Structures are given as structure tokens and as C-alpha cells.
Amino acid sequence: MDRTAPAILELGLLLLLAALAGKGARAVGLPAVIGYLAVGVLVSPFTPGYVANHEQLSVLADVGVVLLLFESASRSTRSASPERAGACSCSHRSRCS
User: How many domains would you assign to the chain?
Assistant: First the structure.
């Protein structure tokens, strides 16, 4: 139980830092993913300075991949919707008016 609270605090701080970096990237006209990746590089074991615990970093990497896939899938679903594309929503084009 003693190790859980610092891990949750660290995860929360990293997510907050990633959100702020994403917002900063959007403010300068870049995609938010650039900010997320920058925070990931900062806490990776390949850079000097702060290094997260390897097990926690593995969990964060898995969560990051899931969130990235979810965001890309939701964007592609929205852009491919018939309402936005002006396409016919029925299965036969000849029936559309």
C-alpha cells in the first residue's frame, strides 16, 4: 500500500504535464501528440535527468499507445461519417435522392 500512492501521484503528474505540453503544442499550431511525445522523451530512460521507474514506464507506454490508437480511431470515424462527407448513408446509391 505504501508504494501505490507515490505511483498514482507520479502518474497523475506525468499526465498533467503531458496535457499541458499538448495544449502548448496546439497553441503554437502543432498537433497535441507532439507535446505528448516530448514529455515521453523527457521521462524516458534514454535521457538524462528524471527517469521513471521501469515498471511504471512500461504501464505508461501501454496506456499511451491505447490512448493514441483511440484518438486516431475516433478522428478517422468522425471524418468518414456520411454526414460529414456528404455521402449517401443507404446501401444502394440508386435509392438515394
Answer: 1
